[in-house]
Amino acid sequence: MGQANIQERLRPELSNAVRWRLVAVGILAVGSLVLLMAGRVSERVDKNSALKKAQTRPLLTQVNAVVDTLLDQYQVDPKWVKSWSVFTPNRKFIREERRVYIPPGFISLDFNHDLSRALAKYDVQVVATERTRESTVSMHILNDGMIIESIAFVVKRDLK
Fold first, then answer.
1. Cα–Cα distance measured from residue 126 to residue 116, given in angstroms and rounded to the nearest whole number
2. How far apart are CA 53 and CA 94, in angstroms?
3. Is there a contact between 149 and 97 (Cβ–Cβ < 8 Å)?
4. CATH 3.90.1680.10: does it fit domain 56-155?
5. pLDDT tens-digit readout, 45-87
6. Could you list the pLDDT tens digit for every one of the 160 residues in the chain?
7. Is 100 in contact with 152 (CB distance < 8 Å)?
8. Cα separation values, 39 from 21, 79, 87, Å
9. pTM across the whole model
10. Domain residue extents for the chain
11. How far apart are CA 115 and CA 144, in angstroms?
12. Residue 144 CB coordination number (10 Å)
């Protein structure tokens, strides 16, 4: 009997609080594994969407031609336009971007409307946002839910 008493003292039962903590640790471990796997899946999705973006390059050439034509129609001087391409860190193409300086009399709503009509045949949409405080209007050209080109119109008071 003395032997059994000593064994019970050496192997005390776990309290309910410790059990719940172990269960919580187990749940957190499973959750972290799920997040790790989700991260790997999203990396694959990102790679696939980067490939999809690269495939829009021929469409982008046509879109650029339409934008250039409209800028010319709206009498925007080519010196007022700055263009560049945006890439991921591993040099995969994402989108084209332009900053266009415009005079105060430029009506961006009309440009947006004309751009939308001209690009409708390519099955792309134009979405615009205005920042009144900064005197800018940004137009994003979307194809399959992805931005393929962004145009930021910035009002410059000294342009005519």
1. 6
2. 6
3. yes
4. no
5. 655 555 555 555 678 889 999 999 999 999 999 999 999 888 8
6. 556 565 555 555 667 788 888 889 999 999 888 888 887 777 666 555 555 555 556 788 899 999 999 999 999 999 999 998 888 787 777 788 999 999 988 999 999 999 999 999 998 999 999 998 888 999 999 988 888 999 999 999 887 6
7. yes
8. 27, 44, 21
9. 0.62
10. 2-53, 56-155
11. 17
12. 14
The two tokens of residue 148 are 């393929």
- Scan for tokens 């064994």, then name that residue: 7
Query: Token pair of 65, please?
Result: 């031609």
Neighbours of 138 (CB within 10 A): 18
